[in-house]
Design brief:
- This protein is of the alpha/beta class.
- Helix content is 12%, strand content 25%.
- It has four helices and 20 strands.
- Strand 19, helix 3 and strand 20 form a beta-alpha-beta unit.
- The chain is elongated and about 80 Å long.
- The N and C termini lie far apart (117 Å).
């Protein structure tokens, strides 16, 4: 009887040991440094109180600043140095007294977006940790921002927008960005160089609207786009930088008053129609443009071509093959140029004056 009792106890001990090693019966405990939910830090007191918990991860969005356009009194986010991961978005907005982003140095992951808006004292973005990819990256209305230093680790984003940062002259800091799955949007009055984008090789759409850019150097690595939209660039004289692009769906070059040449588009060889995108070529209101040289190698174009109000434009011979081989699949709208040939005149070779 005693032997039977000992054997039973031994079997029970083995069973208990097996249960204790079963991960289903012993789930991993949730780390106490994880914050679950969205968090809005709208004052320095909010930042300090949250920082006191030393969270390492936020399963949600982190908003540092005002969500209703009211300026905050946040001056320092250094207490957030333990934060490593944000499963949602990081939004830094409406903090006129925040002079740097030190405190985010340990951050390695942002699953959604990074928005940096209306932080009037920021001069750079140093302090952001080694985050390599995110969804949208948008930097706008930071009136003292001089460069994008702090983003050196970013390699891939879904969309990248830079707009209305009054003293930003270059995109220094994004030299390692290689992939934009969606759109690149650049606008502003002080930006004079895109050369920090020299590693960029893939982007779906490009939208450029600036006051001070004279060329588009920095985009040489891009080989194909859907929408190429160059509009309201007051100082742009050439499209240098776009010579590597060979495929497109829609081309818009409008209201660039000093643009004298589009010859750097000569790499364009193939039009790729898309039912969800306007399949147009539109070149309007470029007052210094005399010729369409640069479009002569495009094949397979079907859609609308608008060439209007380019007051010294008199040479249309670059589109002769496009118009000839496109036939009835092309609608041509020409008006307000120095010379306005009809479709049959272009086809016949009377394409310039």
């Amino acid at each position: 009887m005693k032997k039977l009792l000992l054997a039973t106890l031994a079997m029970l001990a083995i069973a208990c040991s097996s249960d204790n090693n079963d991960p289903e019966n012993n789930p991993e405990p949730v780390e106490d440094c994880i914050y679950v939910g969205n968090i809005n830090l709208m004052s320095q007191a909010d930042v300090d109180a949250f920082a006191a918990h030393h969270y390492c991860e936020i399963k949600g969005d982190l908003n540092i600043g005002s969500i209703d356009a009211v300026a905050t009194n946040i001056t320092n986010i250094g207490g957030l140095e333990s934060l490593k991961s944000i499963s949602g978005s990081l939004i830094i907005e409406n903090n006129p007294q925040l002079i740097n982003l030190h405190g985010l140095n340990s951050l390695v992951q942002i699953n959604n977006n990074l928005f940096i808006h209306q932080n009037s004292a920021l001069t750079n973005l140093e302090g952001i940790g080694p985050v390599k990819k995110m969804m949208s990256l948008d930097i706008s209305l930071n009136i003292s921002l001089q460069n994008l230093k702090g983003l050196e680790n970013v390699e891939s984003v879904s969309d990248f927008g830079v707009s209305d940062n009054d003293v930003l002259t270059s995109l220094e800091g994004v030299e390692n960005l290689t992939l934009i799955d969606g759109s690149l949007g650049i606008s502003g009055k002080s930006l004079t160089s895109l050369e920090a984008l020299h590693s960029l090789s893939e982007v779906e759409n490009i939208y450029i609207s600036t006051t001070s850019l004279i060329n588009l150097k920095g985009l040489e690595g891009v080989s194909g786009v859907k929408e190429l939209y160059i509009r309201f660039n007051n100082s742009l004289t050439t499209l240098e930088g776009l010579q590597g692009i060979n495929t497109f769906t829609s081309l818009t070059i409008v209201q660039n008053p000093t643009l004298a040449s589009i010859s750097h588009l000569s790499g364009l060889t193939l039009h790729q129609p898309d039912e969800f995108t306007n399949n147009n070529i539109r070149i309007d209101f470029n007052f210094m443009l005399p010729s369409l040289d640069g479009l002569q190698n495009i094949t397979g174009f079907t859609g609308d071509i608008y060439l209007q109000k380019n007051i010294i434009l008199k040479d249309f011979c670059a589109i002769r093959d496009i118009v000839t081989y496109g036939g009835n699949t092309i609608s041509l709208y020409i008006a307000g140029n120095l010379y306005d040939p009809l479709k049959y005149q272009i086809i016949a070779g009377n394409c310039s004056q």
